[in-house]
Amino acid sequence: MNEAEKVMRDVPLLTPQDHITKARQILRDDIYRELYIHNGERRLLGYIDITDVLRITDTRSNVTVEGFIKRAATVSPGGSLESIAQTLRSGTTDSVAVTDPQQMILGVALLSDIFPTLTTRNEIRGTVGEYMTRNAVTISFDAPLQKVYNLIVESGYTAFPVVRKRTVVGMVSRRDLLRERHVMRSLKNNAKTAVETIMTTPAVTISRDEQLSRAASDLVKHDISRIPVVEDEKIVGIIDRHDVLKALVIP
Fold it and tell me: What is 3-115's CATH number?
């Protein structure tokens, strides 16, 4: 069996007529960050992600996923983990559809599943400072949830460091907004609930002078997707799995 076949998951699929609330329920309860859309007979039409479902704050809605479908990247079932990595690092998703020549969905390969193997069997060159994103967008611990919600749906970023006077005190992500069931009600009612009530803390951090291989190890160890980069306890950037993929020396 080829590597793509070994790692792919048989994930829930949606049709264009499914309600966005159904997608929200799946993404809230499972580990996925993207869901794939098919024509009812497993032919791939595209995907939606957590940001898409967050755009609809009503807990009951007749809005369907059809208006949110985006083009999906694909790999063949005969592909290697490295070929999956090359596809992922050219995009911004955390998964890729495994399809046959007729674009029928066979399964989905998750970056979180293949990342540990990729980073142990391929060389990772450079330091965190060389590959990190500088001028990381942050949010204050006492900011209202509406502010981080606006940042996520407008920027497309998946998570933000939460700071108190530039010192990182936690992380807040799309999944944090989705997971806490009261958040949708707070957003709809424009409540003044603060970010600190849903952030994940303490935050894992790393120095810009550390080897990127250390960042990869920490991402695997803590099963997280992003790490704030700090200097003298102040945030100077952020490093994520996609940054590490860019540094992999793939044959």
Answer: 3.10.580.10
In the chain, the amino acid numbered 102 is Q
Sign of CA dihedral 40, 45, 51, 52: negative
- State the Cα–Cα distance between residues 226 and 224, nearest whole angstrom: 6
Confidence (pTM): 0.90
What does the pLDDT average to over 52-73?
90
| Angstrom distance (rounded) from CA 36 to CA 139 | 31
Written as six digits, the tokens of 109 are 């390969």
pLDDT tens string 163-209: 998 899 999 998 888 877 667 666 666 667 889 988 999 999 999 99
Q: Are 194 and 172 in contact (CB under 8 A)?
A: no
Q: How does pLDDT run across 226-240, given as a tens digit for each residue?
A: 999 999 889 999 999
Find residue 211's DSSP bridge partners: 127
- In the chain, domain spans: 3-115, 128-249
Reply yes or no on domain 128-249 having CATH 1.20.120.680: no
